[in-house]
Amino acid sequence: ANMAGRFHGQQTLPSADSASGLATHLALFVNMHLPPPSSPNADHDRATLWATIYYCLRCGDACAALITLQNAPSNIAIPQPFHTVFTQLANYQTSHDAKSLFFTPSPSSSNNNTHQPPASLAAIISPQTRIALVELYHTVKTRSRSTTDHNTATNEDNDTETMFQLASLALLSLAEPLTSSSTNSPSSPAANVIQTIEDYIFASLWMAYHQTPSNFPSTTTSCEEHVAQLGQLLQHWGPSYFEGTDDSSNSVPSSGGWAYAFPLLLAQQYNTALTHLAEVGSGTGLLQATHLGLIMYHAGIPLYDFNLQPSQLEESKQNDKDASGKQLLSKLIVSYASAFQTADPKTALEYLVRLPDPTSTGTATASIGQFAKKQIRRLLLETRAFEPLAGKVSSNGSRESATDTSATPSSSLPAMDCYFSSAEVSSILADAAVDTLREGNKADAAELFALAGRYGSLLSLLNCELASHLVDVSPGEGGGSGEQLQQQQESEERRFWRNAALHFHSLHLAHGRTHVVEVLEKEGNLALGNTFQLLMNLMVFFDRCRDQHWEDAWTLIDSLLLLPQAEVEMTRKVEAFHCLDNVLQHSFHHIALASMECLYHQHSNLKSSLGRGQSASAAGATEQRLMELRGRGRLLVTFVGLIQMRSSTDTNARIARMEAYMM
After folding, report:
1. Would you call 645 helix, strand, or coil by DSSP?
2. pLDDT tens-digit profile of 538-583?
3. DSSP assignment, residue 469?
4. Chain CA centroid to CA 405, Å
5. CB–CB of 602/551 below 8 Å?
6. Cβ atoms of 335 and 293 closer than 8 Å
7. Which residues of 364-402 are buried (b: 16+ CB within 10 A; e: fewer)?
8. Which residues 6+ apart lie within 8 Å of 85 measured at CB?
């Protein structure tokens, strides 16, 4: 009822002082819509008068109605109850400095922008006046029926006069609703007043608000029940009744969905109204539904369909309805923001931070909930607009974030820093990295971990990728086209992660105690840095193996101290193996196999050089070296047997065979 009042109140002029202007405008409106008389006559003047008074009531301006009565032609007899009731209503309106009967300024508001619910007619009109109006209503109604029953010749002006006079009396006296079957019958002239859905809803809400059990003991239906029944009726009729289109049609209605959405809003069927507007109004409808939903939500208007079903009066059911309204608004905001997030991710973020938290109770809060943060993570991953939204990593490893507390979304600073603290931004970025890592997008995860300053997580990811790409499988080494394509992809991935690791190392680990080192130390993840350095060296080792630089490769792997160099080191090296990072342990079978290949190929090359014009001393040195290589081979076989590598038994067998051939 309040919403209907606000809507119709907007039809009034700026202040009550301009009531004469409204009366003039309404008189012109009536003259435009009533058929002009062939010549000036009193019947047409009376029809114009009562039509103007009715529309003054529709606009909620009693002052304009009183001025219309006072300026009526002297030859028109106006029943005294009309003068009395409009005088009382106009006095109330002017004493409250109200532009309309539909709302009044709050007493505590100096600028008249805050309104309180309007008073009911029973609180304004005296009981004696109401009794006189009821009697006059029935008199006019009986006279109109008597005229019809006796087929008395009437003209169109007389019908119009009776119709609007009876409609005005029905609204003022509350004797019968205009929409009731007895009043809105073919024999009643007042039936013609209800010509549009707006007319019907106005009449329904007027009666719902003013005729309540507290004011009329004979009335059993409350205002809430009236509104709920109206909402059910509108939904029963469905959109095709209002839009004039088939429900199955995919075309956008000429009203853009408002022909059905507006009546639903008046009947407080907010959920259905916004849903219909978004679904049938195309992009414009989604835009309108989203912004209207945001305004209503932040104004404290619940976004569910009002009803009075007994089961829904329980507190738990009420919470369910609140949640359904928040879910609708969330769906609207996400859908609307998704439509332009690629072109303008910053603006999309402005909408997503306004997503309601479905876990909270009540109306809008200033805090940004977990659901909004989840959608922001989705925005990051789908648009990959990392720099506009979160900035970039500076040369010292820290994120270039907002430091100006007056930052706004339109500034050049990272957009997320306008809504979140630095710690919150870091948390969102880290969670987004975890999300995309689950989907297999490791490159984006690495970039997000770096932006978040989570260098422990970044190093864990780099270590895992380096360990899984230690061996370079160059394409073209046999196999079908599919296998070659896979080998090419693996080689490109290895190159990507190696270059990324080299870049990270040169920027953040090769210059002493950097910001990244401090972060790792604070996180207690310095061991990850040691693993990272070891893996970088192992990448070089495998590159030398690929290029068959066996001596250089063995020199490097031996310097890394992963393998026992003497029998007395065996126990210590086995313990050291079990202290290695899991990624190294998982890849150690590649290291052991490549190390044995280095020994085997060195042994083979040296053995083939014996007896080729060597001096005795050179031959002796060669034999000594062959013996050392065989000794290291035996140590490696023993070591591999003790550490129980996580690989197939074929790897152990290959290592053992190569050692056996070193004779």
Report:
1. coil
2. 999 999 999 999 999 999 999 999 999 999 999 999 999 999 999 9
3. T
4. 25
5. yes
6. no
7. beeebbebbbbbbbbbbbebbbbeebbbebeeebebbbb
8. 125, 129, 133, 172
Cα 497 from Cα 539, distance rounded (Å): 11
- Please state whether 118 falls in left (phi above 0), alpha (psi between -120 and 50) or beta: beta
Alpha carbons within 13 angstroms on the beta-carbon side of residue 145 total 13
Residue 121 near residue 174, CB atoms below 8 Å:
yes
Retrieve residue 72's tokens: 């009526």
Please report which confidence band the pLDDT of residue 219 belongs to, taking 50, 70 and 90 as the band edges: low
Q: Residue 467: CB partners within 8 Å, gap ≥ 6? A: 535, 583, 584, 586, 587
The pair of structure tokens assigned to 145 is: 């029926």
Contact (Cβ atoms closer than 8 angstroms) between residue 585 and residue 646: yes
Burial (CB count <10 Å: 0-12, 13-18, 19+), residue 192: middle
Q: Taking a C-beta distance cutoff of 8 angstroms, is the pair 423, 430 a contact? A: no
What whole-number distance in Å separates Cα of residue 120 and Cα of residue 450?
Answer: 64
How far the first Cα of the chain sits from its last, in Å, is 101
What is the three-class DSSP state of 358?
coil
Confidence of residue 402 (pLDDT cuts 50, 70, 90): very low
Strand intervals (E) in 246-394: none
Which tokens in the block code for residue 630? Answer: 């065989």
What CA–CA distance (Å, rounded) separates 561 from 572? 11
**Any residues with CB less than 8 A from the CB of 537 and at least 6 apart, and which?**
556, 560
Under DSSP, the state recorded for 54 is: H
* Beta-carbon contacts of residue 610 (< 8 Å; ≥ 6 apart): 619, 622, 623
CA nearest to 588, candidates 528, 541, 658, 529: 541
Residue 297: partners with Cβ closer than 8 Å, 6 or more residues away: 303, 325, 326, 329, 356, 363, 364
Residue 105: beta bridge partners? 115
Using a 10 angstrom Cβ sphere, with 0-12 exposed, 13-18 middle and 19 or more buried, the burial of residue 20 is middle
Is 622:569 a contact under the CB 8 Å cutoff? no
The position carrying tokens 């197939």 is: 648
504-537 residue pLDDT tens: 999 999 888 889 999 999 999 999 999 999 999 9
